[in-house]
Amino acid sequence: MVNIINTFHEAFTYSKQNIRRLLFIGLIAVIGDLNNILENINIPDEIGIILGIITIIAALILAGFEHGIIRETSNFNNEIPHFSWIENIKEGINVWLQEIIFCILPLSIILGIFLIAFNDSVLHDFIILLIQNNGIIASYALTDPIIEHVILLFIVAFILFAICELFWLISICRLAKYGKLREGLNFIGIIKDLNQLGWGSVLLWVIVLAIFTGVLTFIGSLVKMIPFIGHLIVALIILPFTLLFTGAATGFLYSYVK
């Protein structure tokens, strides 16, 4: 059985074990965020393009590095891995490819829900009215049948998105473990892993992680309000800690899969 509290406790311990490595990750994040850090400086277009390319490379390296953290911690290795630039970029590309594939799923869900709603006689009239009034609907137009149908659609959408999120989480873990995209997209394997971990446990784990990262994001947005140095602090400290924490927590969760 998954010990949710323990995964986050171990992830927190893991994230602060090597301050030098954390700051080195932060340095890469700073280099990748130079466009935002220097946003108040007039930069020539040519330099802007170069910085954009650097941003993409840094993002790939960090994505691949976090992927390595998931692989190592899921195999009970509690040491922060070293950077392997080419390997990190390769793994980062695989992660991005898988993200693109999994983005198609929720988009398909949105399209499907819209088509269902549009073919429903009650919601069809409501959508037409919504379009005709530029999204503004008077309260008297919200009849009980419309409210009931909308609530039902939201419930269905929430359930489907929650399932997609769980599949995405385990797919990343499988990609890290096996190093192959086809394993990350092995839905039968994903379902088996979820059954072993417990769907409810994984969902609760995702909610806790979302709350924690949401708090860090909120703190980061406040820090960014400080001119120039705000972006620097976020990239140097908050972002690398978040990367280490989420990667380690994900790996420690997947370590329960036997």
Topology:
Layout: H1 4-15, H2 19-32, H3 34-37, H4 45-74, H5 85-119, H6 121-132, H7 144-178, H8 181-184, H9 187-197, H10 199-223, H11 229-254
Give the key terms.
single chain, 258 residues, mainly alpha, 11 helices, globular
Oligomer: single chain
- Radius of gyration from CA coordinates: 22 Å
The share of residues in extended strands comes to: under 5%
Shape: globular
User: What string gives the helices and strands in order?
Assistant: HHHHHHHHHHH
* Total DSSP E strands: 0
Helix content: over 70%
| Biggest sheet statistics | none
- What is the helix tally? 11
Descriptive notes:
The protein is mainly alpha-helical and 258 residues long. It is 81% helix and 0% strand. The chain contains 11 helices and no strands. The mean pLDDT is 84.
TL;DR?
It is built from 11 helices and no strands. With about 260 residues, the protein is an all-alpha fold.
